[in-house]
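Progress narrative, work stream C.
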Amino acid sequence: MHTDLDHDAWALALDAADPLAHFRDRFHIPLHEGREMQYFVGNSLGLQPRAAAAAVAEELERWATQAVEGHFRGERPWMHYHATLREPMARIVGAQPQEVVVMNTLTVNLHLLMASFYRPTRERPAILVEAGAFPSDRHAVASQIRFHGFDPARDLIELEADEPGGLISLAAIERVLAEHGPRIALVLWPGVQYRTGQAFDLGAIARLAKAQGCAVGFDLAHAAGNLPLALHDSGADFAAWCTYKYLNGGPGAVAAAFVHERHARRGDLPRLAGWWGHRPETRFLMGPDFDPAVGADGWQLSNPPILAMAPLRAALELFDAATMPALREKSIALTGCLEALVRQHLGGVLEILTPAEPERRGAQLSLRVRGGRDRGRALFEHLAGGGVLGDWREPDVIRISPTPLYNRHADLLAFARSVRRWSLTA
């Protein structure tokens, strides 16, 4: 790959040949000193689709002109609004439509799903997570363990990295399950580890967990909209993900959940019920007994927040237009280009923590700044001061995530040049 920092032609040629280039124009790109930023933080907050404002305005207008009748009238009546998101979301995560529901926020969904699928006993009380899990996940699983009368100090198993850079091999997961499997009630694993950017083989993990009799769920916060997923075929019991990162649903956007079809009609599963999870055919009879809807809808609690769902609907239309296979192809090219720039020109400044194999990573490279935290913060602030925005993870990691819907090779070149300028004066 030609990645000369002193010439623009190679980046411009690659961007000119990009069949997805026009999608960039369908987003608002933040400005820095009058020019578009190099924005590499889609793994924390995706950019706003230009269609999002109109989607919200449409529902505000309906509220103003139809009031309560908006629940029943129009192209997308509010009563069924969440169902308009079901099929495009299912395509993104490789699920059957009835296995997916858009609702709540990520950690709320994890708790609701663990209420059903984490059923500890004295002999099998433990939950397996990766060491260094995202704090919200760790708080959630530790609190679930305590809620059931067990002790996280004993019953929360945190698998340490066994590869350089904080990476965890499939062999290590297999070993911990072989050793502790009879004690593990639930394996809760990330699709992509947020700090290292490592992607995992979810099907293999689910098979290993199921062989030991464990329930298995996935947190796909950094995987949904980033990697091609096959949730149905993975065999997982459940999964949950937010939609404000790669899915561009907006800050604090409504999250989503997956429940495998084998659980679609299980009346024996305990759950924390709410009226919107009741079977829609009889919901408005207002009876006292809960009759769960078939599929993931049966885990809903409340009627959907329409104004919060409207931007996500606009974003999902872009994913349907672009398609996940095409986005993944471009993502591999962009992330490979970023890797080449770092290795060829910036190796004295940055160390790549994320795996080199494309199948073990998504759009993100986690870059450790050589020389410690103070030097890392100085570089991060230099980049941000020049309109190149990644994000910082303590103590010394900058995450750069070239997102295929709106990032370009020219953005990567600007990032590399900014790092080089800093390194020559630091």
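Work stream C, second folded protein:
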Amino acid sequence: MEYEELREITDNVIQLLQEKNFREIKRLINDLQPQDSALLLDEMNEKDILPIFRLLSKENAAETFVEMSYDGQELLLNSFTDAELKAVLDEMFLDDTVDIIEEMPANVVKRIIKQSDAETRKQINDILKYPKDSAGTIMTVEYVSLRKNWTVKECFDRIRKIAVDKETIYNCYVTDDKRKLIGTVTVKDLLLHDYDTPIADFMETEVISAEATDDKESVAQEISKYDLSVLPIVDSENRMVGIVTVDDVLDVLEQEATEDISIMAAVTPSTDTYMEQSVWQIWKNRIPWLLILMISATFTGLIINSFEQRLNALSTALFACIPMLMDTGGNAGSQASVTVIRGLALDEIRPRDAFKVLWKELRVSILLAATLSVVCFGKLFLLDGLAFGFDYKWYICLAVSLAMFATVVIAKFVGCMMPIFAKVCKLDPAVVASPFITTIVDALSLIIFCFISLAIVPPLSAV
């Protein structure tokens, strides 16, 4: 639904609230998709959210609740009666319940656990025990398990009996009496075989699976790589413990992409949206990185101070070229790092490919450096020197252009190698992206520029 259309419905609901026309509100909100209902509720005043939520049907209420912001969920959880809380929890899938528990304060979590039945409490506790960011924390235990000696008819009977409580029934998993995963069948497979055919005759025994302790991002990559809609999750002994569905994976990929973008922009990642964050929270997320980068940038200041007098003795025009060199080097390094980080994230590049990446980036950097150097020489000599009359002699232009060439090559080397080095050290490659690479390249470009200028300008100026 378009934002303007949803905004119009929201205004209409507000008007109907003032008129106390709850019948029409009930009709309107139950005709919406859960995602749209959640957005509508998040737009409401706090005092109006609960009365409107209570007008949703039982099924819509649970689906809408899952899609709401954490602030809206917490408000409702604190307002629910025990009966209302239990009704919503009974309609939710277990993985959604766990996601909410992980974000809520202790007093709310206690109420949720209290209103869950014994089996659900056990399953919640089992999932919460898995390491942070592991596949076990995003899986659901609501899957269909079958036995290999069952016939197609027996499988359909089983599916009809338990399907209402399962997150997906299209993919079914064949396990033995110890829950070990031995195969998989789809509903399509069942439909294409006679009722009296044992599923052992046609089940797929080569099953792609992941362990519950695997990183959830690697699980997302597996699902993407093999074009799966669901991936079975097993323990260390290949016993079935749950499944991860594609909707869970989309959430993981979005979260990981948001974290990487934040880190690459020198901001501490946050699960809250920009509008949900307070000024102090934004300050807290940004200031550590700015302090680190400010301190690291002092190295460039030290380099400039070390060479200042000698460069001034040659030509003051040399100093005017420093920002251009540093910016070009930083941009060149960022280009290479972003490309490599994306390749690492999608498993297109692996640490063992380091020399292939370096060889390719070396050739690319030479072409780019040559182009930029020629343009730089022409710009300084023709535009800045002849057209605007600045003191850019040909030998100064040559020194800057050679420094530009070396800077771009070095920047590409640093930009492509640092993410791979971080991956080898089991660090997040995004952490060493733009901010740190730019700082390193700035320092190197200054050193290169100063030494080239001191080596070239004095002898050529005498020619």
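The beta strands are 144-146, 171-175, 181-186, 210-211, 230-234, 240-245. No further action is required on this item.
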